[in-house]
Amino acid sequence: MTLHVRTIFACFLVSVLSSVVNGIGTSDGSTSKSGRVVSQSTFPSTAPVIPTNTGTTYQAAASSANKGTTNPAAASSANTGTTYLPTPGISQATVNNDTSNPSVFVENIQKFLENFQVSNTIQKQIGSFIKANNVSFPISIMTPENLQNVLKFLGPASSNLQGLSQFAGQLVNIPNELRNSTNDLEHDISPQCYDHLQFIVSELMKREQWAIKMIDATGKLSSGLMDGNLFWSGSYDECLSVNAAEKFDGQYCTATISLASILGDLFPMAAAANLHLGVCMPDSCTAMEINTVLNTTLGLLPLGENSLQTSATVCSERAEYDDLAIGGFTVCGVFGVLMLLSTLFDVLYNHHQRKSTKTVPHENGTSPESKYQVNGDVAEKPKTPTQPGILAKLAMTFSVYTNGKKLISTEQGGGALSAINGIRFISITWVVLGHSFSSALNTMQNPTFIREFISNWSSMPMVNALLSVDSFFTLSGLLVSYLFMKEMKREKGRINWFMFYFHRFWRLTPAYMLVLFLDMSLFRYLGDGPFWAKEGIEPFCKDTWWTNLLYINNLYRNKEMCFGWAWYLANDMQFYVVSPLLLVPLYFSKKIGLFVNSLALLGITIATAVVSSRYELDVASFSADNLMADMTHYFYDYYVVPWCRMGPYIVGIVTGYIIYRTNGQYKIPKGINLLIWIAFAVTACLVVYGINGPVHGHTWSNGVNALYNAVHRSVWGMCVCWVIFACVTGNGGIINDFLSWKLFVPLGRLSYCIYLTHLLVISYYIQTLRQPLYATTLQFTFIFLGSLMLSIPVSIVASLAFEAPMMALEKIIFRRSKK
Fold first, then answer.
1. Which among 226, 224, 232 is positioned nearest to 268, based on CA atoms?
2. CA distances (Å), 116 to each of 21, 57, 148, 679, in order?
3. What average pLDDT does the chain have?
4. Rounded to 5 degrees, what are φ and ψ at 563?
5. Which terminal CB of the chain, N or C, has fewer other CB atoms within 10 Å?
6. How far apart are CA 108 and CA 123, in angstroms?
């Protein structure tokens, strides 16, 4: 069908050019008696003529007949009395007959098109041609000015007839090329696919609804091309609804076509000018055959030395459930049954306990216990609730009732650093914000919005959202240090190193691995659409999942990383493994410990500066002038490696030690406290907003970039640590009141599961879109808030199913003897 439409359009262009040349003249300069140049064109017989009732007649037909011209259009004009339209307003003296000069010829054409009556008649002819040839699209661009521009655009020699003739010759050859290409195509694809394509064309000419739907569902030129709109996705659902007379069903495919050589500097991001074209094809054709059909069609375009080729064609397929998917369903079923049975047991057990320990009511102000006293002796004490045994506790580890109560509880143990809950939730909110923005970049129909958006200083928190992870590194180091010191003091300088490492591994791994497994096994079956990744968002997991289990996915085969955002967990575990080298010296000797930590921080800073300088890294992942920068070195050699990310963790370790030594009590005079708050607030703003210049295109030198990359994460960690220290020691004021808000307690508990699941929520929304996203600030706001609000219930399910039961099991098995 595509070939048929292109044939009609090619003939249409030839007809328009033929009309113009027939009304003007020929390339050899022969003229009519009235001084007009007469056409000797060899255009096809479909060329329309220009009828008029003015009574003035050109002698073009007779002249053509005398010279033996076989132009049926001219002959038809002579036989039927149809006359060629004269050119009012262009007198004999106006027309230059020096047709040997190409510029004179073009001048005559332009003068011809400037006439209003001529342009109107041409447009009527175009309309008649469209109607006669069943062309269903309107051509509304043929104004006199645009017709003149078309003549200038048609060939490389735009100021003479040679370019026009060359282009017209290419158009005339299209039917022959179509015939040759069709013959070649018949041998390059399967007979069934070829027959079905032919069937589409034949049924389309009969105006069958399903055939029209296939053409309608195919992507077409969309507006906003200069804004970067290269997603011509068509209609996914309309295509899949096609059933072609029980012969085949519609199959939606996306072809990627590079336009860089064609668009050049016209496109805002020419280097990334890849057109994503949605096509509706028979499901009897494979992706490779459809790729061949498209390349054959694209090869017919008269682009001179340039050419268009599809680099990839991906077709939607109904995924069959494999063994991995069956395993995913099995895991879901097992955990669902465990949660159901455990909850039922928990409810029945607690109901039985309440019945056996029913409270005796007061009577006349007498306490319940006094009723059991006889002469001062206790005759019979009321029953007290018995603690469940080990087996009962094990049976209730998956209870939604018990785990849910713990999750939503706002109570905290003594000595808890309550402000951390608020910082933790705000940090995970910042992570979701950054990923909501970055995940939508590849499905936008107006990518130039990015340049406009980041040119505003208010976008810096989103551009610099990478700092949110450094907040987590800081919190992790601080808590590890603070709890380690307390444990060492309680155990008089001794610690169970097995439990030290096992607790961390058990705290992170079960929920992490189970979410990863369900993502790898089931996520690809959850949705569809023109942007849906049929292999899921984790195509490498089948080969590299074990690197995640060992927490080395950021170092080994990191370019094939599974669960890509889990690089943070790998770093956090690696920091935890080496943390005793920093913690033990701090506990036994303040001076030696501070020296060791300072030396480690200096080493991390120098290593980061060296890496940044060597690879000439920018201070931001992208800028307004370099949206499509190669981020390979930035991500794999700097962003995810521990020797460039441990700075905030070390700062957190030192701060945790200071809080332990001060016992959370350190009063600062109000004036000095205010100055310190202002200093750290200004510093934090400089870290976040200081890259505004480079992001807007005012580049820094490589040395300044290296300095910023080396220190800004550690400085940010210091700012976070000051907030925690001030809040814990009573110097936080209203900031402490806000961060210690009880609502942040359960939300802080959910932060880990939100981190694990939020990108699945975002990816599901983005990939199930039917049309590319038109980006606006308000649109991103809704995506961010929607993703955050949906990530919370998803994380609650993950926490109740995977995280809370495993933590309960650890307490039962390893800590049952502890008070």
1. 226
2. 17, 19, 13, 73
3. 80
4. 55, 65
5. C
6. 19
Q: Smallest Cα–Cα separation from 332: which of 752, 757, 801?
A: 801
CB-based contacts of 191, cutoff 8 Å, min separation 6: none
Q: Are 499 and 814 in contact (CB under 8 A)?
A: yes
Distance CA 11, CA 300 (A): 14
Share above pLDDT 90 across residues of the chain, in percent, rounded to a whole number? 53
DSSP code string of 196-244: HHHHHHHHHHTT-HHHHHHHHHS----S-GGGT--EE---HHHHHT-EE
- pTM, two decimals, is 0.77
Rounded to whole angstroms, the Cα distance separating 399 from 762 reads: 29
Cα distance between the two ends of the chain: 78
Please report where in the chains the tokens 């900031």 appear, as a residue. 735
Contact 238, 213 (CB under 8 A): yes
Q: Are 720 and 656 in contact (CB under 8 A)?
A: no
Token code pair at residue 755: 């981190």
Model confidence at 273, in pLDDT bands (50, 70, 90)? Answer: confident
Q: Which contiguous run of DSSP H or E holds residue 122?
A: helix 116-132
Three-state DSSP at 282 gives strand
Q: What pLDDT shows up at residue 111?
A: 62
Residues 6+ apart with CB under 8 A from 226: 266, 267, 268
CA distance 123 to 685: 62
Distance CA 708, CA 613 (A): 11
Which class for 191: exposed (0-12), middle (13-18), buried (19 or more C-beta within 10 A)? exposed
User: pLDDT: is 702 or 71 the higher one?
Assistant: 702
Q: Could you read off the pLDDT of 622-631 as tens digits, one per residue? A: 776 666 566 8
Which pairs count as long-range contacts for 687-690, CB under 8 Å and 24+ apart, including other chains? 687/464, 687/467, 687/712, 687/715, 687/716, 687/719, 688/460, 688/461, 688/464, 688/467, 689/457, 689/460, 689/464
Q: Identify the three-state secondary structure at position 249.
A: strand
Which residues lie below 8 Å from residue 157, measured CB to CB, with a gap of 6+?
163, 166
Angle of the 467-490 helix axis to the 567-578 helix axis, nearest 10: 30
Q: CA-to-CA distance for 638 and 611, rounded, in angstroms?
A: 7
Placement of tokens 């143990």 in the chain: 413
Which residues have C-beta within 8 Å of that of residue 445, sequence separation ≥ 6? 222, 224, 227, 228, 229, 231, 771, 772, 773, 774, 775
The dihedral region occupied by 492, where left means phi > 0, alpha psi between -120 and 50, and beta the remainder, is left
Handedness of CA 748, 749, 755, 758 (dihedral sign): negative
Tell me the per-residue pLDDT of 119-138, one tens digit each, with 9 for 90 and over.
Answer: 667 667 666 655 665 544 44
